[in-house]
Design brief:
five-stranded antiparallel β-sheet; three-stranded antiparallel β-sheet; 18 helices; disordered N terminus
């Protein structure tokens, strides 16, 4: 938006907030004064952190193993740098990177307040998917910048991210800014309390011309190739063992300062927040834009009470400085003195071995041997005009000893102390802890060894949450009214092509947090908790699909939706029956079985009675038959007796 040039005092702050370049409205004298003030205060802030920059240079040299020539105790003496600091940084990066960026789902939306209809939950899911898509697909270079930040932060202790909407690209940008390139007064407690923040940028001559022709910068005038003489770049060059080239041409970058500061442009006595872009060498103002939005202005009647400053930067702290201040401390500060002592001992041992291997000594002037250098090949003998006894008496080797075993023991002690500080002991780097150690003991030891890392990891996650909230605020302003996008790893058919609207972001019912779990800093801990949840599922009442999905996520299984289709997928297995319905059916089955059992018992009792009655009838019949048989037997016996009597009587009557 362009305006006719008017006195700044006649323009409302709301107009200035929407102006593309406020510098177009200012007089040359005022621009010159502002340019001098920006550069002078930048140099003042840079000077306040001069001591920190020296440590920054030292730590980067140590971490990047910069090769340096040593002149004592003799030229090109041993200058070994033990990689204690480098190993600590690499180990931290290897653990933190996969934990903070866990796959395709980086952002999680949480519902705030009541959500009886489930609308907030649906919005949270859409926002989570959209912001994850923005970070990984739309914001090119975000993951690469995060990777670089996590490898640099352990050495420097402080790094920054800059989050803003780029009108040229038409999208959000969140990029890593090296701590050396973001100049803040060393005594500032936080970024919000800093009186000014200056970012050191590089522009080629061609880029400056392009920005002017596009209407972004004022005319730079005639530019000449100059050397970059800014302090941060010098520190970077020294840490890499490099020097700026002596010859400069049109491709040599110019130093441009982007200073976020307070300045009273409208002359009302109240300093408003602005972003001033200044060419360092010429101290020329290129651009001024407001660092606030019209809705950030608070009035009391017609008087401005406060203007809320837009903060573009997020500070990532490795370990807070116990002495206070914005700049934190890293492994470079914690391990630097130890690493220097280790380097000294290692070099002393190497130098002692070198002296012993290349034996020095004295040669008598009376020895009749031609001077010069003698080099012997294996099996070679040389003729000299001296006897063996003369040679033995004329050459006196210096009395040297083997490298000190005490120094070697001290070296091991210092290395162990450094590894304990940085959590890079044998167990933490994947080495075998020893024989016959129980699994539970190993897990406890590993968990205790991860305490330092876990605290740092949670601190970085908090800063990452702050960065996501800045992106959320930008989406409120700049996301399209309706935007369609592809979910990177959809968990259901509905999420393959999803729509997000600006109204989704204009809500107070959703909170944005990183998906990284603040309590799990290792893959083993994730798997253990998922397995514990799976064991609890046997008790009933758990969402079986959700439990199985978390098991797959804990194991870093790619495309889990293909292995475990969501419940609404056509390939999904039959859902488990309703427990209440199963209970009713079971009760009915039990009652039916009970009724059948009662009927069986009734039939059994009836059959038993019939059998008992039939048995009694048979027994009675048997008894009757037995009685008849007994009667017949008696009758037979009587008849037999009668016959016998008759026979005997006849025999008595017959004559002899």
């Amino acid at each position: 938006m362009q305006y006719d040039k008017k006195p700044l005092v006649t323009l409302a702050l709301e107009e200035l907030a929407n102006h593309d370049n406020i510098a177009e409205l200012m007089d040359k004298e005022d621009l010159t004064k502002l340019g001098d003030q920006v550069v002078s205060e930048y140099l003042l802030d840079e000077q306040s952190r001069a001591g920190w920059l020296k440590k920054y240079e030292r730590n980067l040299k140590m971490a990047t193993q910069v090769e340096e020539i040593k002149s004592t105790p003799w030229p090109n003496a041993s200058n070994v740098k033990y990689p204690l600091l480098l190993n600590a940084g690499l180990q931290f990066h290897a653990r933190a990177y996969p934990q903070l960026i866990p796959g395709a789902s980086i952002v999680t939306g949480r519902v705030i307040g009541n959500d009886e209809m489930g609308d907030k939950k649906q919005k949270a899911e859409r926002i989570s998917a959209h912001m994850s898509y923005q970070l990984l697909e739309e914001m090119t270079g975000w993951e690469e910048g995060m990777d670089r930040l996590l490898i640099t932060l352990p050495f420097t202790g402080t790094e920054f991210k800059k989050t803003y909407f780029d009108s040229k690209l038409g999208r959000n940008v969140s990029e890593h800014i090296f701590a050396k390139d973001l100049v803040v007064n060393y005594h500032a407690k936080t970024l919000a309390q800093a009186p000014r923040i200056t970012e050191v940028l590089s522009y080629t001559k061609n880029e400056l011309i392009e920005n002017h022709r596009q209407g972004t910068f004022l005319d730079c005038g005639e530019l000449y190739p100059v050397a970059r003489n800014d302090i941060p770049t010098n520190v970077q060059d020294k840490s890499k063992g490099m020097e700026a080239p002596g010859v400069h041409d049109s491709s040599t970058p110019y130093v441009v300062l982007e200073q976020h500061r307070l300045y009273d442009l409208d002359g009302d006595g109240y300093d408003e927040p602005y972003i001033c872009t200044v060419l360092l060498g010429e101290r020329k103002v290129l651009r001024i834009v407001a660092a606030y939005y019209p809705e950030d202005i608070e009035y009391d009647g017609g008087t401005i009470v406060r203007i809320h400053k837009t903060n573009y930067y997020t500070c990532f702290i490795f370990i807070p400085n116990p002495a206070g201040g914005l700049y934190g401390i890293g492994f470079g500060d914690l391990l630097g003195p130890l690493n220097n002592s280790i380097d000294t001992i290692v070099n002393q041992l190497v130098d002692a071995g070198t002296l012993l291997n290349r034996q020095p000594g004295f040669i008598s002037r009376n020895l009749r041997i031609k001077g010069g250098t003698y080099r012997f090949k294996p099996g070679e003998w040389m003729s000299v005009n001296a006897t063996g006894q003369d040679i033995q008496q004329g050459i006196f080797p210096l009395p040297l000893r083997e490298p000190s075993s005490t120094l070697f023991a001290l070296l091991q002690f210092l290395i162990g102390a450094g590894e304990r500080v940085s959590s890079t002991t044998d167990l933490q780097v994947g080495e075998n802890p020893g024989q016959n150690q129980k699994v539970g003991t190993t897990q406890i030891v590993q968990e205790n060894g991860m305490k330092v890392f876990t605290a740092i990891y949670k601190r970085i996650r908090t800063a990452l949450e702050e960065e996501f909230k800045k992106l959320f605020a930008l989406n409120k302003l700049y996301v399209k009214p309706r935007e369609y996008f592809n979910v990177i790893q959809p968990t259901s058919r509905e999420l393959q092509y999803i729509e997000v609207t600006r109204s989704d972001y204009n809500t107070d019912g959703v909170n944005i947090i990183p998906s990284a779990d603040p309590y799990l800093a290792s893959q083993a801990a994730k798997v253990a908790r998922a397995q514990y949840l799976a064991g609890m599922m046997m008790m009933g009442g758990f969402n079986e699909y959700e439990v199985k999905r978390r098991l797959l996520e804990a194991g870093d299984i790619e495309r889990p939706d293909e292995v475990l289709p969501p419940p609404d997928s056509p390939n999904a297995p039959e859902p488990p029956p309703n427990p209440d319905l199963m209970k009713i059916q079971l009760e009915a089955l039990i009652e039916d079985n009970a009724e059948k059992e009662r009927e069986f018992r009734r039939q059994f009792d009836m059959n038993k009675q019939q059998i008992e009655a039939a048995t009694k009838g048979i027994e009675l019949s048997i008894k009757n038959k037995a009685a008849d048989a007994a009667t017949l037997k008696v009758q037979g016996d009587i008849m037999n007796d009668a016959a016998d009597i008759t026979v005997k009587a006849k025999q008595q009557k017959s004559p002899k």
